[in-house]
Design goal:
With 696 residues, this protein is α/β, with parallel strands linked by helices. It is built from 24 helices and 19 strands.
């Protein structure tokens, strides 16, 4: 019974963690974004296997608690051992502070962090050594702080999981890992999106209350510090559980195999999902995915790109007309789903200008985003290749001197710029675009007078467009055509923008408001541009970077990748292109409209060419999909392949080309041809990047 009490800090914190995890699962289970119903068996999987997984994850997470508790003792403060230990701490502190420690070889913040930790540890040890009469009180408050920290982290994680689910409809994934890197933008986004002070005030009050309860139940550990023998027993029990946990956590993750993605996400443990996302940020296609012999993969690819030869995508693109070197303005709109627009069935009238402009443009009614993050959209329109496994090329180390839309425009004598209202450091955009020959115009280029409104993501879209007009007016005087790629920011949480612009106030932070303000800003941009002498000699390409949400019941919900895209050419008769196409095809199609002759490495194609075969690529960072012949083929790690028939769900009052929603029904008989074609696209894209065959 006495030994049982010595485990009190573990089991009371563990019980608290289980209760919080259970509540989080219930909340996410009934969350509006969880668009699914669950059978009894699925519900049992979610809660029973989920709880078991939580137990083993807590065992691993309590490693530092065990380490802290196991070293609590009075004997180490006896003479002379106490002074020897203190001396070692002081020497270690001085060694790290010297700037010549082994930690300095790693650079960054690591030496500073370790120095602070060792400094605090040295100070606390000295207090406990030189103030023996106050040792019990100091130890109690240290113990209370450790318990408080664990309770706070448990509650903070629960809160974070809720907000992450609220945004993305999944547990932690690759995006959460990225959020740790760009803390300034992410913390700023949280500060502007949510009532942080009341939220954290309540969080600290709740943390304090539960800490007090757990302290009352578990302080016996420090009131009667375990003997060496008892510590050996505690350590033996913990280490055995730790070893079992390290084996069983991945095994339990294998049971997350339901066809309903929400079941798998709710069953999983968020902390373990975060670890997996961190571990899998770089995925070697040839190690994790189903492959073909490399020569066969390129042979299959040749059926889609007939002009290529050998193990590359190099081919000659020739036009039967004279090149037309008009200016090109490419606008990628942040988080802009097709379902926002009236032509796709939206009744809220939040895109009046784009609805109007689309009717005067070349519309691509059946176009799919390559991914579900901005970097994937930028990659698609800049590099025109399928989304490869792992992180976007934009954020990889090997991201420079690629064959890109900017490189091709430069070959043709264009000025080439990337314009972004925020800090181009975010998502590695500056490194990527400067490394590929673009000049950057971002928030740092704005004067104070040019900024009328900004939030954590950058200046509002109106300010960006005002700046763009100034830049293009200057460029127009240089006797060279220009290609300017503008990335918007306003349609992003916290959805704040200047008031009194549209009929939805900017301070209520609504998604519809963000969409409508984006539309309003574009209307102002075109009103200004139409008055400029270069307007009639300019092609405007408008496309979303990705949809507003990627959450869905299925692995790759196709409606969450459908985006609007159109090309406005002043004075040219409007038309529609209704075949399936990919975001990577947009710019090669623009080059076709300009009648460019060039040597291409693009996987993207001019959809008006007779050899184009309709298909689209959609992907997460690890699930790679191909839509073709109303079949969705998905490649996943561990050489998994799944296929689904896409059965359209007609929407009353809409023309068929604007139908967005499909039922994804598992294919009864495998389409081997489509499996091979999917493998071919993704394998060859991975191959040309890996072997640096996609350089300009």
């Amino acid at each position: 019974m006495i030994f049982y009490k010595k485990l009190a800090p573990f089991y009371y914190l563990g019980l608290f963690y289980f209760i919080v995890s259970f509540i989080v699962r219930v909340v996410l289970f009934f969350h509006p974004i969880t668009q699914s119903s669950f059978s009894i068996v699925e519900s049992l999987k979610i809660f029973v296997l989920g709880l078991i997984s939580d137990f083993f994850v807590f065992v691993v997470a309590s490693f530092f608690l065990w380490l802290y508790l196991i070293f609590i003792s009075n004997s180490k403060y006896n003479k002379p051992s106490g002074f020897i230990i203190l001396g070692v701490f002081v020497l270690l502190f001085l060694y790290i502070a010297s700037g010549r420690s082994i930690l300095d070889e790693y650079g960054g913040a690591l030496p500073g962090i370790v120095l602070i930790f060792v400094g605090i540890k040295t100070m606390l040890f000295a207090l406990l050594l030189f103030l023996p009469k106050h040792r019990d009180k100091i130890r109690f408050w240290l113990f209370a702080f450790v318990i408080f920290l664990y309770v706070l982290l448990i509650l903070q994680n629960a809160l974070s999981e809720y907000f992450f689910w609220n945004e993305f409809g999944v547990r932690y994934n690759f995006i959460a890992v990225n959020y740790l890197i760009y803390t300034n933008e992410v913390i700023g986004n949280i500060m502007e999106s949510y009532p942080v002070i009341p939220l954290f005030s309540i969080l600290f009050l709740i943390t304090g209350a539960f800490t007090y309860f757990i302290l009352r139940k578990s302080r016996s550990y420090i009131d009667a510090i375990p003997t060496f023998k008892e510590k050996v027993k505690i350590s033996a029990l913990y280490i055995n559980l730790l070893i079992a946990s390290l084996i069983l956590i991945p095994a339990l993750a294998l049971t997350e195999n339901s066809k309903n993605v929400f079941v798998n996400e709710l069953q999983s443990n968020g902390l373990y999902k975060f670890y997996l996302a961190f571990h899998n940020n770089s995925l070697d296609y040839f190690k994790f995915y189903k492959t073909l012999p490399n020569q066969q993969a390129f042979t299959v690819l040749k059926q889609q790109l007939p002009a290529i030869t050998g193990n590359s995508t190099i081919r000659k693109i020739e036009s039967d007309s004279a090149e037309n070197r008009k200016n090109v303005v490419l606008i990628t709109i942040e988080s802009y789903s097709a379902e926002f627009m009236e032509m796709y069935g939206n009744k809220e009238k939040i895109t009046p200008f784009l609805d109007s402009l689309s009717q005067k443009s070349l519309q691509f009614t059946n176009l799919y985003a390559a991914g579900n993050r901005t970097v994937r959209g930028l990659e698609a329109v800049t590099l025109c290749l399928p989304p490869t496994a792992g992180e976007s090329v934009v954020k990889r180390e090997d991201n420079k001197n690629k064959f890109s839309t900017g490189a091709l425009f430069k070959q043709k004598g264009y000025n080439v710029k990337f314009m972004y209202g925020g800090d181009a450091f975010f998502d590695n955009m500056r490194d990527f675009y400067t490394g590929n020959g673009y000049e950057i115009i971002d928030k740092s280029n704005f004067t104070a007078e040019e900024i009328t409104f900004s939030n954590v993501w950058g200046v509002c879209d109106e300010d960006m467009y005002n700046k763009a007009i100034k830049v293009m007016n200057t460029e127009a005087k240089e006797n060279r055509p220009f290609f300017n790629h503008i990335m918007t920011v306003s349609n992003h949480r916290p959805f704040t923008y200047p008031n009194n612009k549209i009929d939805i106030p900017g301070d209520i932070k609504s998604r519809d408001g963000g969409v409508k303000y984006t539309d309003y800003s574009l209307k102002r941009f075109f009103a200004m541009a139409s008055k400029q002498p270069w307007f009639n000699n300019t092609i405007f390409v408008i496309v979303a970077d990705h949809c507003a949400s990627s959450a869905g019941k299925t692995q790759l919900p196709v409606d969450k990748y459908r985006i609007p895209a159109f090309i406005y050419r002043p004075g040219v008769k409007p038309e529609k292109y209704n075949q399936v196409m990919s975001q990577i095809d947009l710019m090669p199609t623009v080059f076709g409209l300009l009648h460019f002759n060039y040597q291409s490495k693009f996987f993207g194609q001019d959809v008006f060419k007779p050899d184009y075969k309709p298909r689209a690529f959609i992907a997460t960072y690890q699930d790679l999909g191909l839509i073709k012949d109303n079949v969705l083929t998905i490649l996943s790690p561990k050489q998994q392949v799944k296929q689904f028939e896409l059965k359209v769900k007609p929407t009353a009052g809409l023309s068929s080309e604007y139908y967005i929603y499909y039922d994804e029904v598992p294919l009864k008989k495998e389409r081997t041809d489509l499996v091979n074609e999917t493998i071919s696209f993704y394998q060859t894209a991975s191959d040309v990047l890996k072997h640096k065959k996609y350089q300009k």
